[in-house]
What we know:
This protein is α+β, with helices and mostly antiparallel strands and 240 residues long. Helix content is 20%, strand content 29%. The strands form two sheets. Strands 1, 2, 3, 4, 5, 6, 9, 10, 11 and 12 form a ten-stranded mixed sheet that branches. It has a two-stranded antiparallel sheet with strand order 7-8.
Amino acid sequence: MKLNFSDLILFEDNDYIVINKPPYVAALDERTPDRSGQSILRLAKAYSDDAQLAHRLDKETSGALAIAKNPEAYRHLAMQFEHREVTKRYHAVTNGVHNLEGISVFLPIAPSRDGTYVKIDREKGKVAETIFNTLRAYRNTTLVECMPITGRMHQIRVHLQCLKAPIVSDATYGGKPVYLSQIKRDFNLKMDTDEQPLIQRVALHAHSLTFTQLNGEPLTVEAPYPKDFGALVKQLEKNL
């Protein structure tokens, strides 16, 4: 399905665009032969010639993604990321019921040999910190706010695994799918049908981004839930 870049825009001025990245779209061009040419970077450059991504989101992760429209704006925001001055708030649905209140996970992360996943490595890992807060506890899942202080690959996912709160449908880090039959009383599945999970991807969404613009003004942009994440939360709310 062809994406219309303009439809993704949450905020735009002369220096920055903040979009609501859909799930399943890569931020950068993929190395795999089946690449569709629909990376966010490619779409952004077609929209604005000098566009550069100021950070990345995993392919499956949806939500707020900042794009600089000129080199000065890029440097300005890149420095804020480097100095950990950007506030990123993610929402995740995790397996299990958890009461997390300002819980900080400060554990170093190292990539696997093939670079497809990460692990906690106290000797060779790079410093990584994430703060977690429970937003809403359900019957057997929890909606969690995740604030990564550093920006390592898969940081939120592996840190939640360390809390024994893996993200729903995140098989790489021990997350299990959630089915309507697990949460809805009197659920009846039609004969000869296979039940599908309520969400098919890692249940992680970049909910908001706060940074300082070139004029010194702070900017906060919130990204509404995409359909699949919104539908999951709606079902969890309905079946408390």
